[in-house]
Amino acid sequence: MKLLLLIIYFAVLAGIGLYCRKHATDVNGFVLGGRSVGPWLTAFAYGTSYFSAVVFVGYAGQFGWKYGIAATWAGIGNAMIGSLLAWVILGRRTRIMTQHLDSATMPQFFGGRFGSRSLKIGASSIIFIFLIPYTASLYNGLSRLFGMAFDMDYSVCIILMAVLTAVYVIAGGYMATAINDFIQGIIMLAGISTIIMAVLKSKGGFMAALDGLAKVTDESVTATPGIFASFFGPDPLNLMFVVLLTSLGTWGLPQMVQKFYAIKNEESIKKGTVISTLFALVVAGGSYFLGGFGRLFSDQVDVAAQGYDSIIPTMLSGLSPVLISLVVILVLSASMSTLSSLVIASSSTLTIDFLKELFWHKMEDKKQVLCMRILIVVFIAISSVLALIQYKSNVTFIAQLMGVSWGALAGAFLAPFLYALYARGVTKASCWVCFLFSSVLMTANIFLRPSFPEIIQSPINCGVAAMLAGLVIVPVVSLFTKKPEKKFVEDAFACYEKRTEVSRKTSLGK
């Protein structure tokens, strides 16, 4: 039964990829779905790209163990800041200006917005360097779940996931990814809701589980009774850093922002904002809420020996075979949707912003699409090899690099992208300073972590510091560096002044 469910699931995803081939014949169709993707598909594509196995198995287990039920704040922050505010503040302006500048990638946006070839190549290089380890991290957490549900080696799981993702992304591009993300999103919504109810039921229901959590004590953390069932948990400051990195950080991630490039119209943005927020509230909020009860299973798991990734699988090990199958498909869905989003972002930026810009200036549209398809295979292969190396040899360096990737990308791009959409006085130099500051800081965090101040030794806290510093660096450096040509800036912002007719149901008029 479990194997049959997987085969049906794989067949549907591959079939959609082949069906969407007609939408992936040129760069605009392959990367952006022709900028005609509706609210449901865009909102689910945004949400499923946001939440992967890293969140469900890794982060939910780790932060639930550390902060108890207060870890739910991370899910609420993901919904309110990472989804709602991101759509409200970035969605509409991103869609308008990227179309005006004819940009399909984030580096292409920077190149067009600031008239800078070097900025475009620099942004592309940062994405290439830091997205690869981030992509490899998506396989983390699947090994124990697969071992629990199927008598199958984890290496086979990695290869299956990689091959299937490659098939539907290469065949159908962004549109296939968006449709599959919708299906995967439905599975994630149904799965997380069902699993939470089943786990809480196994502990006597919500109130009984909460009461049990209130009785848990850990002298190494705090002597305060009932702290793991409290509103803010044992460490509110570090919890705040987690909320900020996992919520505000999405504003600067290329694979997330790129979803706004493809949305169809104003109405789609309004609906997508609501759908995306509710999706995040259920999936992220549910994942962290579930993880918050991890300490109730402390008699079954040895975190010191097995690591945080073992917490969620242990919580789920007592469920029925059907529910365990649902969990595996849920986590596969979360990981594959994020993987497909990342490889499209990586391959498109390397083709359009690096290879075409530096070596093949007259690359035709069809050759660009072919190049992207080849690079998708390359990226998926590299990430799979990294995941297999880590699984077989427990190389911790790869895991450290994965943790730094999110902070480096968000720190480098959040402030320059946000200010570029709203402020006319932003300079090219300020973007460069922000790019370099974040990349160097997060790389140094890998090799020189003990010498960092204690509060930013953690890659999470360091990533938040990089993001917040960028919000100060860009406007300050812009004050003291050469301003862009006024005409060039006015041309870029002219897109916001264009008049458009709307129906009476949208506006009453004068």
Binned strand content: under 5%
Characterize the main sheet.
none
C-alpha-based Rg, rounded: 22 Å
The helix/strand series, from N terminus to C terminus, equals HHHHHHHHHHHHHHHHHHHHH
What multimeric state do the chains show? Answer: single chain
Helices, by number, come to 21
Structural class, please?
mainly alpha
Low-confidence sequence ranges: none
Overall mean pLDDT: 82
In whole angstroms, the N-to-C terminal distance is 62 Å
3D shape = globular
**How many strands appear in the DSSP assignment?**
0
Helix fraction?
A: over 70%
What key attributes describe this structure?
mainly alpha, 510 residues, 74% helix, single chain
Write the layout of secondary structure elements.
Elements: H1 2-19, H2 27-32, H3 39-50, H4 53-67, H5 72-100, H6 106-114, H7 117-136, H8 142-149, H9 154-202, H10 206-214, H11 236-248, H12 254-261, H13 266-291, H14 303-306, H15 311-316, H16 321-358, H17 365-393, H18 396-422, H19 428-447, H20 459-480, H21 486-493
Short description:
The chain is mainly alpha-helical. The chain has 21 helices and no strands.
Describe this structure in words.
This protein is mainly alpha-helical and 510 residues long. The chain has 21 helices and no strands.
